[in-house]
Write a structure and sequence with these properties.
mainly beta, 2 domains, 8-stranded antiparallel beta barrel, 4 helices
Length: 385
């Protein structure tokens, strides 16, 4: 026969079975250890346990009809009810009932997963342009002017050099910086030719003046669909030893035509090179030697052209194009009568220009140094670029 454990007698005849108390204490101690070594848990013998008469209850298994409600706290505040409803908390809030109805909390439900972040906006795929003028370029043109006199019947091939910086967006590009680096003309090997150059003082004056700035000049450079690039650079007017307004007025007038006679602008002549004589100074050597001063209004434009085989290749850093141009010149003074003749353009000639991407090594510490490097890399070679 099984002998029931002896009950513990409490006040007013209420009985607490040792079995029930042992279960409660076992749960309490187990939970206390689960709190970890950093939690402070006082020995059971050091706890103050209070029991008071609770409200009557139905009494669960092993409980009594007159339940006893008390407090037992191990490492926290809580209630233990034997034979009734109560709470047991170890290091936190919880409810346990022995011999009655109670609640033992379990872990809470996992939180809802966060909603996925919004997808990033679609990126732009950058496709390198096969026709791109962005960057720094050296420019060399060869024109075929004729002297407007019987001084020479030979074509005076004329070179000019420019430093350019471009930016391109889509198929359109724009000049963001330009420098006029001078000019040279003639064919010294031929008897009926004269070499025309600038003095250092004149070159310095040309570099310093800003009246012929090409900033804002626009063009297009686009894939032609046949393995090449279609190039164009808009018509642009410039002046030599004349007020900039003459060029800007001509630029603003789509119907403007160069005058056949520039003598009416002698009063407008400027002394760019500060040598005391209006007009720019050209030093002539060869068939006739001397110095001539002149004023000039001119224009040029550039385009790719199948007829002259001026079609830039794709991804090209060195190419040539067709140059359309015209000049109106007037000689303000000359040391010899033979040098007073102005220049005219030879009709239907293959005036052309070369654009070559300028490496960093060719950019000098001064503008004059950069221009000297450009002219040295693409020298005047008569009819060749």
């Amino acid at each position: 026969m099984t002998t029931s454990p002896s009950p513990i007698r409490l006040a007013k005849g209420v009985t607490l079975h040792q079995r029930d108390l042992a279960i409660a204490l076992l749960i309490a101690v187990t939970n206390a250890w689960a709190c970890g070594p950093t939690d402070s848990v006082a020995p059971i013998s050091g706890e103050t346990t209070q029991y008071s008469e609770g409200e009557p209850s139905a009494g669960g298994l092993g409980g009594t009809s007159g339940g006893v409600t008390g407090n037992l706290s191990v490492g926290g505040t809580g209630n233990l009810s034997v034979g009734g409803t109560g709470n047991l908390s170890v290091g936190g809030s919880g409810t346990v009932a022995v011999g009655g109805t109670g609640n033992l909390p379990t872990g809470g439900s996992g939180g809802s997963g966060g909603s996925g972040g919004s997808g990033g906006s679609g990126g732009t795929i950058s496709v390198p342009r096969v026709c791109d003028m962005t960057g720094t370029w050296a420019f060399h043109s060869v024109a075929h002017p004729l002297p407007d006199s019987n001084l020479s019947s030979a074509i005076q091939y004329s070179s000019s050099w420019v430093y350019y910086e471009f930016t391109q967006s889509g198929d359109s590009f724009e000049v963001t910086k330009s420098m006029n680096c001078g000019a040279e003309s003639g064919i010294p090997e031929r008897l009926k030719s004269a070499m025309v150059t600038f003095s250092d003082a004149t070159l310095d004056a040309i570099l310093a003046e800003t009246m012929n700035s090409q900033i804002g000049r626009t063009g297009t450079f686009a894939d032609d669909g046949a393995g090449g690039c279609e190039f164009s650079l808009e018509k642009w007017y410039s002046v030599t030893s004349l007020p900039a307004s003459l060029a800007s007025d001509a630029q603003a007038d789509p119907g403007f035509v160069l005058p056949l006679d520039m003598s009416g602008h002698v009063s407008d002549a400027l002394d760019w090179d500060n040598d005391g004589t209006p007009g720019i100074a050209y030093i002539t050597e060869g068939l006739v030697s001397g110095i001539r001063h002149a004023i000039e209004l001119s224009w040029n434009s550039f385009r790719s052209h199948d007829e002259y085989d001026h079609v830039p290749g794709q991804n090209s850093s060195d190419f040539d194009v067709r140059m359309d141009m015209d000049i109106a010149e007037y000689v303000t003074s000359a040391t010899k009568e033979a040098l007073k003749a102005g220049a005219i353009m030879q009709p239907n000639s293959d005036n052309s220009a070369r654009f070559k991407r300028l490496p960093a090594s060719s950019v000098g510490s001064t503008d004059a140094g950069t221009c000297a490097n450009i002219a040295g890399d693409m020298p005047h070679n008569y009819d060749s670029l």
